[in-house]
């Protein structure tokens, strides 16, 4: 049996707006969570590619300089991490700071990318048995620093957007 004595009261405008805000808030939280998960995945992939590039750089530094293993690891790590930190510094710097360090930072980024590319090309193409494999190895070697650069840009954009919206 239904109760006919209950009368629905009209909802006020404020309660409708509050309900819409709650729905919008839940969507925004879910969107931020997805964005953070994607950024984490890109970060993991970037770290694995940096590890591969670091290994190739160590090998190349040892071949070029004839230094010991720990010196090669130290030098290669400084080059790779120096690139990453310089690029991040440029991404987070204010306009004033970017004007002060921009030229030097961009030269550093280009130089380290070129060095990383050279070491990766050597590692991938050095043992190729024919010209086609050498070309493929060189392409992969050149792609690794480009991927690191691109992944860092995407990761930084996602992270800064996440920070500004949360």
Task: Describe the protein's architecture and organization.
With 166 residues, this protein is mainly α. It has one domain (31-165). It has helices at 13-65, 69-92, 95-125, 131-165. α1 (13-65) runs antiparallel to α2 (69-92), α1 (13-65) crosses α3 (95-125) and α2 crosses α4 (131-165). The longest helix is centred in the N-terminal third of the chain and has 53 residues, at 13-65. The protein is elongated.
Brief summary of the model shown:
The protein has 166 residues and is mainly alpha-helical. It has four helices and no strands. The chain has one domain.
Which key phrases capture this entry?
166 residues, elongated
Please tally the helical runs, counting DSSP H or I stretches of 4 or more residues. 4
Termini Cα gap: 49 Å
Weakly predicted, low-confidence segments: none
What is the 3D form? elongated
SS-based class: mainly alpha
Radius of gyration: 26 Å
The total domain count is: 1
Could you report the average pLDDT, rounded to the nearest whole number? 85
Show the helix and strand layout.
Elements (H helix, E strand, L loop, with lengths): L12 H53 L3 H24 L2 H31 L5 H35 L1
Helix pairs in contact: 1-2, 1-3, 1-4, 2-3, 2-4, 3-4
